[in-house]
Amino acid sequence: MSHYCDLAPDHPFHGPYHDQEYGFPVADDDTLFERLVLEINQAGLSWLTVLKKREAFHEAFAGFSVARVAAFDDADRARLLGDAGIIRNRLKVDAAIHNAGVVRALQAEHGSFRAWLDGHHPRPHADWVKLFRRTFRFTGPEIVGEFLMSTGYLPGAHRDDCPVQARILAAGPAWARHPADRPLA
Questions:
Q1: Does 69 reside within a domain?
Q2: Binding site feature residues for Zn(2+)
Q3: Which of 84, 104, 141, 166 has the most CB atoms in a 10 Å sphere around its CB?
Q4: InterPro entries, per this entry (predicted)?
Q5: Enclosing domain of residue 52
């Protein structure tokens, strides 16, 4: 079975994502939101499709500004559904807008989206899925797992022998600091 570490090197889209972003801890809420939106949009499609459309997503979703997307209205929804540069799936568009509002509420209650994530770490993947399903829209096991791996909350983004893994470990991802052994409260 191939691993992303086998497929990504030297690829024009996968390579930079694999080498510079995938699995590294993320501190910025807008970047966390971007990853969530991109993972939601990957559902049923290839990650390459999403990476190729990433710039268009960035434009369409106001640079993934949580505050701006949370304020999107019906006109914005119609604009997004008419934008051929992104994935025009009504459920995914609605989830992105709704989830931006959820992140705003988490920011108000916890100080940041990252603080909310940190407050729930560590926990096993299955417990994360339950938490995300209670909190967000369009967040099944694969989406949650990839979101958490891509942002450093769950291990598995890279093989141990991948040169990027050493840089991720040096960056101090949450999964390396605290193993997922706490059951859902």
A1: yes
A2: 5, 18
A3: 104
A4: Adenine_glyco, DNA-3mA_glycosylase, DNA_glycosylase
A5: 27-150
